[in-house]
Design goal:
Distance between the termini: 45 Å
Number of helices: 12
InterPro entries: Aldolase_TIM, Indole-3-glycerol_P_synth, Indole-3-glycerol_P_synth_dom, Indole-3-GlycerolPSynthase_CS, RibuloseP-bd_barrel
Largest sheet: 8 strands, parallel, barrel
Helix content: 40-55%
EC number: 4.1.1.48
CATH topology: TIM Barrel
GO molecular function, one term: indole-3-glycerol-phosphate synthase activity
Enzyme class: lyase
CATH architecture: Alpha-Beta Barrel
Radius of gyration: 17 Å
CATH class: Alpha Beta
Bound molecules: indole-3-glycerol phosphate
Strand content: 15-25%
CATH superfamily: Aldolase class I
Catalytic activity: 1-(2-carboxyphenylamino)-1-deoxy-D-ribulose 5-phosphate + H(+) = (1S,2R)-1-C-(indol-3-yl)glycerol 3-phosphate + CO2 + H2O
Oligomer: single chain
Length: 268
C-alpha cells in the first residue's frame, strides 16, 4: 500500500470501528454475551441453506444506507423486509449492524432473528473477537471476515473462534492476492466482492476472474452489484453457489416483493 494517497473510506471505517469496539468493551463485558439465550442456540448452517434445492442461493441483504449511495431506504423495518426475503426464497439473510456508515443497528439483526428461521449473516467490519461473540449473542449464524482489513493470522484465529461457537464463516476477497494469502481451513464460504471497498467501483468481472481460484471445498459467493436476474444464471454457470444482493431490492418500496419478481425472472 506504499502508493496510497489520503485515507480511503475503508481506512475511515476501520479507524472508527476500533474506537467503537473499545467503547463497547468498556460498556458490556463478554461475560454478558454468554448469558444471553441466543448465545446458546444452535446456528443454521450456511452451507445447508445455500445448497438447498428449495432455495435460491440468494443471500438477501437489509441495508438502509451505504457510504457510496447515502440513504437507500429508511422507510422499512428489518422484520418485514427480511420476512419478505425469506418468503421469496432467500437461502440466507444479511443484516448490516454498522450504524455510522451503513445506518444499521444490532436491533435490526435481533428483529430479523425473531422473524425468521433461515441463517443470518452479521454484516459488520470484524476486527476483534469481541464482535464475534457478540454476533452469536444477538442471534447471527454467519460472520463476515474481510480480507482487505485483516492479516492472515487474524483471519485464521477469528475463523477458528467462530467455528467453535457454531457460526459459519464467510471470507470476503476482492482480488487474487487477497484470496491466496487469506484462505484457511475454518472457512465455509469465500465471497468475491465485486465492489472495491476503497473506491466503490463495481465490476462483476472480479467474480469471473476469481471463481476457479477458490478451492472447491468452500461455497463460492458473488457479492455486490447484482441487479439483473440473468446475471444469476451466468454466475451459476461459472460455478457460484450463492449471490449476495442488497441495493437492488432495498431501493424498492417493498424489497421482498422486488425479490419475488427478480427470482421469477431468473429462469424465465
Ligand atoms: O448492495 P449490493 O451492491 O447488492 O451489495 C450487497 C453487499 O455485497 C454489500 O453490501 C457488501 C459486500 N461486502 C461488504 C462489506 C461491508 C459492507 C457492505 C458490503
Amino acid at each position: 500500500m506504499a502508493e496510497k494517497t489520503g485515507a480511503t473510506i475503508l481506512d475511515k471505517i476501520v479507524k472508527h470501528k476500533l474506537t467503537e469496539i473499545a467503547e463497547a468493551r468498556a460498556r458490556v463485558p463478554i461475560s454478558r454475551f454468554e448469558e444471553e439465550d441466543l448465545f446458546h442456540r444452535e446456528c443454521y448452517s450456511l452451507r445447508e441453506f445455500v445448497l438447498s434445492p428449495e432455495k435460491t442461493g440468494i443471500i438477501a441483504e437489509f441495508k438502509r444506507a451505504s457510504p457510496s449511495k447515502g440513504i437507500i431506504n429508511d422507510q422499512v423495518s428489518a422484520a418485514n423486509v427480511t420476512q419478505g426475503y425469506a418468503d421469496a426464497g432467500a437461502s440466507a439473510l444479511s443484516v448490516l449492524t454498522d450504524s455510522q456508515f451503513f445506518g444499521g443497528r444490532i436491533n435490526d439483526l435481533l428483529q430479523a432473528r425473531e422473524a425468521n428461521t433461515i441463517p443470518i449473516l452479521r454484516k459488520e467490519f470484524i476486527l476483534d473477537e469481541y464482535q464475534i461473540i457478540e454476533a452469536k449473542a444477538i442471534g447471527a449464524d454467519i460472520i463476515l471476515l474481510i480480507a482487505a482489513i485483516l492479516t492472515p493470522e487474524s483471519i485464521a484465529k477469528f475463523a477458528n473462534t467462530a467455528k467453535n461457537l457454531g457460526l459459519s464463516v464467510l471470507l470476503e476477497v476482492h482480488n487474487q492476492e487477497e484470496l491466496e494469502r487469506s484462505v484457511c481451513d475454518d472457512l465455509d464460504a469465500v465471497g468475491v466482492n465485486n465492489r472495491n471497498l476503497a473506491d466503490f467501483s463495481v465490476s462483476l468481472q472480479h467474480s469471473y476472474d476469481l471463481v476457479n481460484l477458490i478451492p472447491d471445498n468452500f461455497l463460492k459467493i458473488s457479492e455486490s452489484g447484482i441487479s439483473d436476474p440473468k446475471t444469476i444464471r451466468d454466475l451459476k454457470q461459472a460455478g457460484f453457489n450463492g449471490f449476495l444482493i442488497g441495493e437492488n431490492f432495498m431501493r424498492e418500496a417493498n424489497p421482498g416483493e422486488a425479490m419475488k419478481d427478480f427470482v421469477a425472472q431468473i429462469n424465465a
